[in-house]
Amino acid sequence: MSGSRRTFLSITALLGVLAYAPLASAQMPPPEKQFLALATSSVGGTWFPLGGAMAGLISKKYPQLNVNVEATGGTVDNLKLMKNRKVELAYSTADQAFAAFRGEGKFDTKIDNIRGLVGGHAIIWQLVTLKDRGVKSIYDLKGKRISLGAAGSIGNSIGQIVIEAHGLKMNQDWKPEYIGHAQGAGALRDGQVDAVLNISSVPTGNMTDITSTHGADTIFLVPDPKVLDKLTADRPYWVRAKITGGVYKGHDKDLPGSFAVSTILIADQTLPDATAYAIVKTLLENNAELTKAHSLGKEWTTEQATNGIKGVIPFHPGAEKYLKEKGLL
Asked: Is residue 272 part of a domain?
């Protein structure tokens, strides 16, 4: 075969390879200069300082992205702000994003312009009692008084759903009390209630208070696995979770069997793909730096990147591109 013939075949083969190269391998251009508003929570809430940490990190890695942190009323407020195109970025709990996208629950109309960027820290089911109350499982709560947190808190509805799924009707088989988390430990200790529920990040103040004084005499009550299977089948925004050993005094081993609702970072669908890509890349590839700025940063990792979004709301195309490149989707 002549040299020219061999050259022709080599070029043809190369063109064939390029023709079938995956489009996903194309480089994403850097984002253009933009001013972005990030809706968080009240100044005293967890999301506001976390938002500040993320905003600072994003702007450091991409100076052309100026992220301004907005204090808000929290999840529902954030979703409504995004519906009205008042913010480009926001925090939401996965359950409320699910309801908003479908126009259910607290949302009269669909908020279908929201898109998921990345999942992060979870707020975990933490239901605790004391050994002297004679309660070893949720089934044993019949005839008991249970604090579901302050009126209006997320524990009110979730607590009722989970306990009733075990065959115990509220106000018939057990009595709810609506006591703020700060007072929950004292209420349990004083016998005002028999169990205290907190759905929050770990560790959380009232659980630390209870376990610091009662240690191994505190019992964490988790749902029956079969019951939880049925509940999560209808609620893709609930994910399995555990309480890591050593977080609470007297509980050195992991406490499995719980579940959580993820906090997710969402964006308006009009956010440029390059911007969404840059934000997700920054948060996942600089976790140590984010964690230094805020302790909850340690949970915004590749392992949890799709939690609370996958099967709940659509991913933003820019976020989806990055996650697929890294094998996370």
From this structure: yes
What does the block give as tokens for 212? Answer: 């610091």
The amino acid at 301 = T
**pTM more than 0.85:** no
Separation CA 308–CA 306 (nearest Å):
6
Q: For residue 202, what pLDDT is reported?
A: 87
Which amino acid is residue 132, in one-letter code?
D
- Name residue 258's amino acid: S
Dihedral angle computed from the Cα positions of residues 215, 146, 93 and 303, in that order, rounded to the nearest 10 degrees: 30
| 8-state DSSP, 27 | P
282 vs 234: CA distance, rounded Å: 33
From CA 22, how far away is CA 166, in angstroms rounded?
Answer: 49
User: At 218, is the secondary structure helix, strand, or coil?
Assistant: strand
Strands 114-130 and 218-221: antiparallel
- Residue 263 scores a pLDDT above 70: yes
Interval 147-176: pLDDT, tens: 998 887 778 889 999 999 999 999 999 999
Give a yes or no: residue 23 inside a domain.
no
In sequence order, the 6+-apart residues with CB closer than 8 A to the CB of 198 are 126, 127, 149, 155, 181, 184, 204, 206, 207
Domain shared by 267 and 244, yes or no: no
Most distant CA atoms of the chain, gap in Å: 95
Pairing of strands 89-93, 255-268: antiparallel
Domain boundary among 228, 259, 290: 259
Distance CA(220)–CA(26), nearest Å, equals: 49
